[in-house]
Amino acid sequence: MYGLSVPVMAGLLVLVILFAMASFATLLRKVGPHEALIVYGIRGPRTVTNGGTIVIPMLEQCRQLSLELMSFDVAPQQSLYNQPWSRGDRRGGGAVEGEVRPRFDSHRG
Hints:
The chain has 109 residues and is of the alpha+beta class. Helix content is 24%, strand content 28%. The protein has one helix at residues 2-27; strands at residues 28-30, 35-41, 46-49, 52-54, 60-66, 72-74, 98-100.
């Protein structure tokens, strides 16, 4: 009888370890080098880049943000300069167009 309980206890220990590893894997959130994870909740807001963190369900939430370079054109709906110039009667009625490239610096706190 004593010889049968050792394999049963070893099997239960293996199951407990597998269950603990599976639970830990569901709590772990990882991001790549060009992504940021914004975590907010009971432990306060924090940002994780190029790594991972544990997010506790129902106490914390997280959002993933891409840090890839993106560009988009910005064009105003109306002319910006309608005031007369200092020389003569010429008006600066030209339209202005631009391009915005947001950049997030991961090294600053």
